[in-house]
Amino acid sequence: MKYRTLLGVSVTIAVCSAALAQEPISVPAGQRQLFLDDHGIAKLDNLKRTMHQPVKRGAVLKPDRPWETVLQIRSAPAWDESKQVFKLWMVTSTPAVSAQNPAEQKKPVEDPAETPKATGQSPAEPKKPRKIAHSGCYYPFPIQANDPKEPLAKQFSLDRGTEYLDTLTRQWTKEVGCVTCHTTLPYYASFPARKKGLGLASEELREFIEYRVANWKSDKPLWDAEVLITATSLAVHDSKTTGKLQPSTRKALEKMWSLQRPDGAWNWLKAGTPPLEHDDYYGAALVAVGVGLAPENYAADVRIKDEVAMLRQYFAKTPPPSLHHAAWLMWAEAKLGGVMTKGSRYQQVEKLAKKQRPDGGWSLPSLGGWKGRDGLPIDKAPSDGYGTGLVVFALRQAGLPSDDEMVRKGVQWLKANQRESGSWFTGSLGKRYHLNFMSHSATAFAVMALKACE
Known about the structure:
Oligomer: single chain
Number of strands: 7
Number of domains: 2
Largest sheet: 3 strands, antiparallel
Order of helices and strands: EEEEEEEHHHHHHHHHHHHH
Shape: elongated
Strand order of the largest sheet: 1-2-3
Radius of gyration: 28 Å
Number of helices: 13
Structural class: mainly alpha
CATH architecture of the largest domain: Alpha/alpha barrel
CATH class of the largest domain: Mainly Alpha
């Protein structure tokens, strides 16, 4: 016989069957038992047995595919040690067919909205991309630089902005072959939820990213930053399409968490190109946004509880080093929570208000004390698409209404400063600034800001 004592109540565990009397039941301390009946209890001391009536909750699993009419479960959940999850196998049936009408005896047609290509579900073998930037997303660039002299659009069009992003993304994916902090996540985040997919450019980018994830073992990521951008972008894409984390997304997220440092942050790119490839803080803020946007309440998953706590602790100990990063943190707070106090948010909003220019916009250099290519003093730098789009979007995430005067003036600036191509121009800072790829992020955030104010 073996004994357990819980709160002073003694339960004697034994085997009542004479045939099995020599094999006592052992219940390790802390192990939960789904059932504990007379087979395993020899005697009860100071314990009352109560049978609680089950509460009917209705169907938990329901048919959700066109070819499913009935679902049957014929086995118990099985624990997958490698995945650390329970798995349950189900049996389904297709609609009945009529013997009088052989034409009906066809396999049910899948809803296009539910096919892997339309929803972003991970294909078994992602197609190999035309090009992969194994040495980094650097020279020679086949993508034309954004021209600061490009004329303004004769008429504002939000659709032209999204078309510009589509065209840019397709070209970047095919000709450059890398995921980027200035385009990938903002591009996905700028789209509304569409169950039938986000369009051809989106799916081509998804296919490229999934190929990279599937081959990371043999073709390692360029930097830790590639893993972070990949994982968060896939999570955002899932939230916009299927509403469920796909296998490739989970694989990328697991890789991302494995790279987290003890202080809660990650090793990010420091290429001398602010504000994105500049410091570790931005990488942590990007992860916070991506985890907060991930579907299925991923941020609350008990399996990443400690990692998310470490990330929140990092922000608690490390204040934003710039207004730019504070704006990103406002977005993260709105989606993840626990990364920015109300007091800090209020202070940062007040600081952003002081940086608004007379024309209603904001400049990127003023958000971090960075000098632009024009060499103008920071307080003289002209308003640009990224500074204005990011700040307006962040202010809405912080809770300011769309009719707030500061927000309203920012929206007016954005509508008046779109370029003929559909983009919003912003000069890049630091190395390779003449390429002006910050205009890619500028366009995505301008679209997001304008949609947030509709």
